[in-house]
Amino acid sequence: MLFQITLNNLNLKKRSTNQSLGMVRNTLLSSIDIALVATQTGPGVLLAEDHRWALRAAAHKKSSNIQDFADILAIGDEVHLKKIESKFPKRLGKVSKFFAEHAETLKLYGMTEDNLKASTYQLTDTEGIEAAAVIMDAQSGDILSLVGGSSFQSSQFNRATQALRQVGSSVKPLYYGLAMDHGFSPASRIDSPPIVMGDWKPENYDKEFTGRTNLRTSLVHSYNISSIQLFKALGINLAANHFKKLGLPWDDVNLAHALGAGSATLLQMVQAYSPFANSGRITEAHFIKAIENRDGETIVTATDPRLRAAPVLTAKAQALSRTEKAIASSNQPADANNDPRQMLSPAAAYVMTRVMQDVIRFGTGSRAQGIPFAAGKTGTTNGYTDAWFIGVTPRLVCAVWVGFDDARKSLGGEGTGGKMAAPLWKQVMEPAVKLYPSTEWKVPDNIVTVRVGFGGEKMVGTGGIAMPAVAGTEPGSSGSRDALGLDLGSPLSGSSNDSADSAVKSENHDDSTSLRRMN
């Protein structure tokens, strides 16, 4: 059974007939918050009462006090408009009196008292914004539904399978999960001192430094500095190998990848998240379950590599995996069946789903609340050009992306993964979980629970926060690790022999994080 995602699920309507282009003619008497526009059907007005969202977005972008239309519009600007039914603001008095007071200016631009009443327009910020979504059965790999854009008639480009977009902080669970199999736990302590490497100065979104915290808090609130510390402590080469095995097309991995510098398709990210919903084992997606001949005999099944929707585990990646296993330390996940698709131990996958549930309950993904057992992560790229939310249930993996086809265009200050993609993800998943219900996450045998304070210290009794951990990695155990007092070295160093001649390639931030280049 397929689950059909409609345009309504994604809140993307086909371009309506009442949308038109307009040109700003005058930010008329900006102190009263009215702008005049010339439209394809005649003159019109914009009222500030209908555009608080635009004023807020402009204020966020400029970091200044936006007062009126003159601060966000200039004469000659081309704008997208939608005609609306809007009452004339009471604060301006009667229409007739207002027209009389400003008749000279209004008449200059072709405005009459009658069309002042009937020609109210609103800026529309959805023109050109695209979205894509993929839902996959985490156990079988069946693609249950896929939407590649708002209109196939307008564009045949499939943004779910063809668009390589920067992933932002949605990458963080991938290496946080790996860390759970290498001695770290959600309770592991981690430092977040200021980092300056030449012209690269990553920062938390609020420009504040969190001091010593723990991995759970770092991921729930998507802190940047502590995530970089974990990435380095884990090992850039180890993380790069893990990304390759997950099918992510990233070469020359560096510290910027800790914040989402790499680009991937929506389908690739769905597969990369599948180990969280499948006891640590990656699920390879396919569109076709089987091919039969004219006699009804099955001649190709979904296990055939030719039917993979986004192939992973290349020969090179499998060779790397075998090499890694040969030199594995005792705290690496055991794989009794030597299955190259086992990306994480079941215990590490479970721990990460618990942490990502807290991302939705208490962190940047709060707008996805309401889906049973859901765990997920937001992602937003620098300049608000890409908004992501990727989440899992014990049965499904779903990813939603929002952005412009032109990756240089910004969604605006409200265009974060938590504010744009997470609500859409929830809308898509609400009917999906009714068709594909699931039960609570299965707890592996080697899971322990510890109580930890906000600074990462182990607590007794009922104090602190209860956190799950892979047995042997909890605070106080011999196999536990922290990320404290690291010398980060070069931003491009995966090992002491790596080159540091190139510049950091990209900058990313999440709903509560930012990576900024300092000139």
Q: What are the main properties of this structure?
A:
single chain; 519 residues; alpha+beta; five-stranded mixed beta barrel; 12 helices; globular; disordered N terminus
Characterize the structure shown.
This protein has helices spanning 52-62, 95-101, 103-108, 113-118, 172-180, 215-220, 224-234, 236-245, 266-277, 315-326, 346-362, 417-435, and strands at 19-26, 34-39, 42-47, 78-83, 120-123, 129-137, 143-147, 165-166, 189-190, 200-204, 213-214, 263-264, 290-292, 298-301, 375-381, 386-392, 396-404, 447-452, 458-459, 465-470, 508-509, 513-517. Helix content is 24%, strand content 21%. It has 519 residues and is of the alpha+beta class. Mean pLDDT is 78; it is low at 1-18, 59-66, 319-331, 490-509 and 511-519. Helix 5 crosses helix 7 (224-234) and helix 5 (172-180) packs across helix 11 (346-362).
